[in-house]
Amino acid sequence: MSSPVSRRTVLGTAAVVAAGAAVATSGSPAAAHGRGPKPTIVLVHGAFADATGWSDVIKRLTADGYTVLAPANPLRSVTGDAAYLASFLSTINGPIVLVGHSYGGFVITNAALGNPNVKALVYIAAFAPDAGDDVAHLTARFPGSLLDPATAIDFRPVDGGYDGYVKKDVFRAIFAGDLPRSTTDVMWATQRPGHSSTLQTASGEPAWKTIPSFYLIAREDKLIPPAVQRFMAQRAGAHTVEVKASHVAMISQPRVTADVIRKAAR
């Protein structure tokens, strides 16, 4: 009995697969450029925010030919968020530059461990924890943070714990003092809460001990004090740049932020 699949069908299917592979290769991070494959850039937001905060940075990097991904950070737990991101990273072929803002730094520090594709870590006004560090103690290491959980955060019960939202009357001062109030009012209304467990959960072994790191210090940050940022950057041996910016440096200073990421990607 002759096969129901003809030679023409097989050849046609092979041609489609080959064409698809060619498109995937040319548009992927493995697309060749002057000094090898361009890395995929993965941007990870922190608490009280979402991935739209990277919008202007994404525009600049994609204009340079980079593939940029900004997945949603679950903001449920340090271990769970890191596991989620690690799983996401495992689907990416080729080199990766992993970027975190604020609490996103906790997530990238843990998620990158053991992934040989991650070639650089970039911290944008972010936590760069060592093993055993937690958000609460790092924030309080030096004075300057206005994010007092007792007065600045509304806690709402969820799943046996609490979600934290920054209060409206202090949101702009703490989070984004260099942005217009009309912008920060929208940011407050649309903020994604962080689970209260993320404040006191200890970080694991840091990926920055084996992966080159870069750090953009926001000199006017009222959430993570600049002194804390300098301490973490120095401890990690990071290539460091400072900028006059609030906590959301990637929004108020997208050009500088994109420049730091480009340096890490070279």
Describe the structure.
The chain is of the alpha/beta class. It is 38% helix and 20% strand. Strand 10, helix 9 and strand 11 form a beta-alpha-beta unit. Helix 2 crosses helix 11 and helix 3 crosses helix 4. The relative contact order is 0.16.
- Sketch the topology as an H/E string, one letter per element: HEEEHEHEHEHHEEHHEEHEHH
| Secondary structure tally, helices | 11
C-alpha Rg (nearest Å): 21 Å
Shape: globular
Strand order of the largest sheet: 4-3-5-6-10-11
The main sheet comes to: 6 strands, parallel
Low-confidence stretches: 1-34
Average pLDDT number: 89
**Structural class label:** alpha/beta
Compute the separation of the termini in Å. 58 Å
> Total strand count, please?
11
Helical content band:
25-40%
Strand proportion, as a percent range, falls in 15-25%
Task: Give the topology, please.
Blueprint: H1 7-26, E1 32-33, E2 36-37, E3 40-44, H2 55-63, E4 68-69, H3 78-89, E5 96-102, H4 104-111, E6 118-126, H5 135-139, H6 149-152, E7 153-158, E8 161-166, H7 168-175, H8 181-189, E9 194-195, E10 213-218, H9 226-235, E11 239-243, H10 249-252, H11 254-265
Parallel strand pairs: 3-4, 3-5, 5-6, 6-10, 10-11
Antiparallel strand pairs: 1-2, 7-8, 8-9
Helix pairs in contact: 2-11, 3-4, 7-8
